[in-house]
Amino acid sequence: MKAKRTLNVALIGYKFMGKAHSNAWRQAATFFDLPANIRLTTICGRNRAAVRRVAKQFGWENVETDWRKAVADRKIDIVDICTPNDSHCEIAMAAARNGKAILCEKPLALDVDQAKRMVAAVKKGGVVNMVCHNYRRVPAIALAKEMIERGEIGERIFHFRARYAQDWIVDPEFPLVWRLQSDRAGSGALGDIGSHIVDLARYLVGEFKDVCAMSETFVKQRGGRRVDVDDAVTMIGRFRNGALASLEATRFAPGRKNAFTLEINGCDGSLVFDLEEMNRLRFFSRSPAAAGQDRQGFRDILVTEPTHPYIDKWWPPGHLIGYEHTFVHTMADFVGAVVRRRKAGPDFADGLKTQQVLEAAAKSGRVGRRVALN
Ligand code: SOE
Questions:
Q1: pTM, rounded to two decimals
Q2: Per-residue confidence (pLDDT) for residue 287, from 0 to 100
Q3: Whose C-alpha lies nearest to ligand 1, atom 1?
């Protein structure tokens, strides 16, 4: 039996996403029969003491304060980018030049121009690459994808409707953190959480033909500094396959902590998902076989069967999984792609298409009219 190769990972970033990814690298190696061993080789961050604490907490072997050294380290196979959006491009391009496989947190970049450069770099480097849109790997979302592909809600989709709502910056006294600065984040709710629902729209329904959007910055000053990103955005759009999109991303919905819901209506049925009940998928079928004339209604699927995506690696039916498992599923699929040198969706080319929709939405908000996607 050929010994498994070992993939050395360098993680750039150590805060919220750095911790979610650290946990996921460990759990993927534990719960999934990966085609390679995973080594938590190096974790990078500017604050050595803080990075040391996270390294100790999650078992990273080495601490580095200069990401360039980690990216150039010949023993590193995978670079995992969990930094603020403004450094994604520079780090990814350096990693591609050094022949590293790259996992990059969403959104891919600050703008389309950077995203295009990242796509060109990974193409030139011939390296496996993925954008970490973890919600694609919620089992209920992966099941929805399978059901749509099997035609269970019909060949024709009419509507994709999604809302991603949070409330962490409703307080005007909340400070101007990097996610609220356009030079660090690129945009506000649009790129941070809007990128998730645009990615899911593209994944579940198809590519956009055009979009029309309106955004608002409700709190215009924080700490005496002007807020130059959107606090909320509302988008409508049309897919190339004729379906209509209604999307909303807001950080000003008191009580909604990290709530995203989606509904897809097809000619033969509908699917409904709510992240606050992430182990469930609601399904309505118009097919006569599904229910007698007076027995129609949404079926509430508990997505915990071993036949459901990823679930066989976890617990018996009815024992639920959580937000952190979506990152574990992402790492497991990414490692498979790295070892087999195949595409791991969504890759950077996907990330570029999502960035183009985000940029079209921002442009639409500025010019006050619909913007086509070329
Ligand atoms: C903040 O809005 C945030 O951490 C996003 O950046 C993540 O992508 C999302 O999954 C949770 O909320």
A1: 0.97
A2: 84
A3: 192
